[in-house]
Description:
The protein has 552 residues and is an alpha+beta fold. The protein is built from 21 helices and 11 strands. The protein has helices spanning 4-17, 21-26, 52-62, 64-73, 82-88, 100-111, 155-176, 178-182, 185-200, 202-215, 250-255, 260-278, 311-325, 329-339, 348-359, 372-385, 392-411, 417-433, 435-468, 478-514, 516-551; strands at residues 121-122, 128-129, 133-139, 145-151, 222-223, 236-240, 245-246, 280-282, 290-292, 298-300, 306-308. Strands 1, 2, 3, 4 and 6 form a 5-stranded antiparallel beta sheet that branches. It starts with a helix and ends with a helix. Residues 465-481, 508-516 and 525-538 have low confidence and may be disordered.
Amino acid sequence: MKTHLDRYRQMAEILYRNGLGYLVAASGLETRIPFRRKPQSGDRPQQRAATPEYLRRALEELGPTFIKLGQLLSTRQDLLPPRYQQELAKLQDNAEPVPWEQILPVLEAELGTDVLTRFAAFDTNPLASASIGQVYAARLPNGTEVVVKVRRPGVEDEVNEDLDILQSLAGYAAKHWEAARDYDVKALMDEFAETLRNELDYTQEAGNTLRFAANFQDDPVVQIPVLYTKFSTSKVLTQQRLYGLKVTDTAAIDAAGIDRSALAAAAADAEMKMVFEDGFFHADPHPGNIFVERGGRIGLIDFGMVGEVDDKLQSQLAALFVAILRNDPERMASALLRMCLTARRVDRYRLRMDLQQLIRLYQGRTLGDAPVGRIISGALGIIRIHHLQLPREMALLLRMLIMTEGMGEVLDPNFSMGKTLAPYAKRMTMEQLNPVAFVRRLGQAGVETLELGAELPDQVRRVLNTLDFEGFEVHLRAEELAPLVVRLEKVGNRMVAAIFAAAFIRGVGELALGDSERWKSWQAPLMTAGLASTGALGGYLAWTARKQRLRG
């Protein structure tokens, strides 16, 4: 039976052979191998930074898990320079087909020993073969043509072993390698492991398919394949087979008499609907996952990679859009710092100057006329230079926007992603600024104020005690005060929010007098959230007064 030690040795051998020996030391892989490997005649020179081509070759040799990792990294402009992204984008998730004799037992174990009799026809030659599964064409008894995806036998154990190793090595690297700490490699690897393990479980993709089908059930432009749950399990996925033209085959689309300009706009609008209305989007809209059906209808497949837009992400996007619309580098820097993760101190002045250069790309233009893809790519380059890291959902969203714009420009050279994006962005920004949403956030802030306020007196007392100790000759490290400063800043923000709330409530009162109907629609949520915030603040003030009485 293959052990981790065997895999450690194999990984080290491949890395050395491709000039990536420094990774063996930096990741701690050399500590897992009993005997140090001697240089071989076929090894490439060991370098601190491998060429993109040899990095790709190493990932291909390391197998399916590492190919998936390379594909993920090829989409992360916030982590890798363009030349590495371009090279890793060449990684193909193709594999030699597993013989039918090994696939049939999986089907029988999942769907029953009479599985083939449940289909009117089943082609045992795969349509496609990837590292995790193989796809077959079949036909149901009612004549419906379907595709059946079957997980390759043994792949789960292989992937899980590699993921365990990668997560362990990432933990070591985060402690001993500055670059790994800067980019939070441990969190990145944990996220990758969760994503890939979900991909192994076809029930995840089945759930995503059903959710998209519900979101587009009445849409005449977009078709989602029907999922056949009776023929689907964690290892088998059966869906309606869609036919159509490749979205990049412009000659065939023209020959079919389909308006490419309208098609580009419809495809982009469908993606914007997913993001800004449904809060659930297809995160991998590459040409292989999009079909153009007769009449210009768009068929979408492969829902293994998806993203979700929650209230927090909406708020972050709104702040970013406001900064872009106002051409404000300071506001943009604040929005990025709130959004991104970082393990080091950020030079805010330099970040603002870099963003000022970016703004010049679209200064004087409306969002509808702005080059969205260039702005996003430029911003991601700045994020990478400053060692910031985007949360997964935001990285997926920005990647999707770039891919959608690229597809639109192939279909229509005059396509403008900004024109499609602008109305959705403005609507979302206005929703974030409406009184009901504001007061709801204020209510949440009130609860946080109470929690922070309870900690504040003790925190301040500790600072004063420290300052009193041996007079003013005190030696402090900035990192020790950083958490306190953050807490104080938050409390300060809450106090500002409370003051603003007072003015806001007065304004609402005046609005109620002037527009009674609109006031009625807002009254209940305003009162609920207002009670939460004022109750929290009042509770804190009462607690402070009680403490003072006890001291007296």
